[in-house]
Write a structure and sequence with these properties.
The chain has three helices and 14 strands. With about 290 residues, it is mainly beta. The chain has a twelve-stranded antiparallel beta sheet. A two-stranded antiparallel sheet has the order 2-3. A hairpin with a 2-residue loop joins strand 9 and strand 10. Helix 1 runs antiparallel to helix 3.
Length: about 290
């Protein structure tokens, strides 16, 4: 990435998040929450506004610190974005909102997401870690998208982007995933829906093989080689890296249907954010791994 360290930094910028109706389809325990995929787009947009020459296709050290609840019937949510540049010339951005104390007398800033952006070095190409990217090895359980979105990841229509069956095996999970079709931005980081669907796949895998309903709290890296687009179908693949202790960790790949790698996401961290309130149905649980 072109050197940006000489530019004025750090920056704390007021930020307005537009709330479209489709965002209410992303909900947890009865409350709409702003998706992690959309938070990353907001941060990338803030970086590009302040540093138009910056590349944002290589994301590192993402942390989804706290859910950002979406109140009913709002058009815009007030937030702020803090931007800094570190010694490695990477741009760190964090999304905050201001909340009142229980007494209502004091306001404080709460962080919801943070990540570092940089560019892919040279003409770097991803490795293909699978002998056949279209086949999942081992004995598989196939779960329909209808079952996933009615019982396992009960999101609304806009976020039902695992299409067809999800194949689950001890070695991982695989499914066709949709680029979606809403007002979401697919220019900066690509469509948010394939990335979001990858997280659903990790959630379902954990329900089957660990008996835990887990949600993402961060990832180590996400490299975007070609941006996913709305109304296009892709192939998603996840592999468990750590599943015997928490947080559970997964690596993931998003392919186009010709076999080219669109994204590689490493070190996806998943935890039980409900602290046991949410439990998987018995039918999804594997008796052995």
């Amino acid at each position: 990435m072109e050197n940006v360290s000489h530019l004025t930094c750090p920056i704390s910028q007021p930020w307005a998040i537009k709330i479209y109706p489709y965002l209410y389809d992303h909900h947890l325990e009865g409350k709409a929450v702003f998706p992690a995929a959309e938070a990353l787009i907001e941060l990338a947009r803030a970086v590009k506004i302040n540093f138009p020459q910056a590349a944002v296709n290589n994301l590192r050290g993402a942390v989804f610190s706290r859910f950002l609840s979406i109140p009913e019937e709002v058009k815009v949510m007030a937030a702020s974005v803090n931007i800094e540049i570190d010694e490695a010339n990477e741009i760190a951005a964090a999304l905050f909102t201001s909340v009142k104390s229980k007494t209502g007398n004091i306001r404080r800033s709460v962080e919801h997401a943070r990540v570092k952006f940089s560019g892919i070095q040279g003409r770097q190409l991803p490795e293909h870690p699978f002998r056949d990217f279209t086949k999942l090895e081992g004995e598989c359980l196939n779960v329909t998208a209808a079952a996933i979105y009615s019982e396992l990841v009960p999101f609304g229509k806009a976020y039902q982007n695992i299409s067809g069956d999800l194949s689950l095996a001890p070695a991982g999970a695989q499914a066709h995933i949709s680029g979606g079709n809403t007002e979401s931005d697919d220019d900066l980081l690509g469509s948010p829906y394939p990335f979001d669907a990858i997280l659903h796949m990790a959630c379902v895998w954990a329900q089957r093989f660990t008996g835990v309903v887990s949600f993402p709290v961060g990832f180590a890296g996400r490299t975007i080689y070609q941006k996913t687009k709305k109304q296009i179908t892709y192939l998603g693949r996840i592999v468990p890296v750590i599943f015997t202790r928490k947080p559970f960790v997964f690596d993931a790949w998003i392919y186009d249907l010709q076999g080219s790698v669109c994204e590689v996401i490493t070190g996806i961290q998943m935890v039980d954010v409900s602290r046991g309130r949410m439990r998987p149905p018995d039918w999804i649980k594997a008796t052995t791994l």
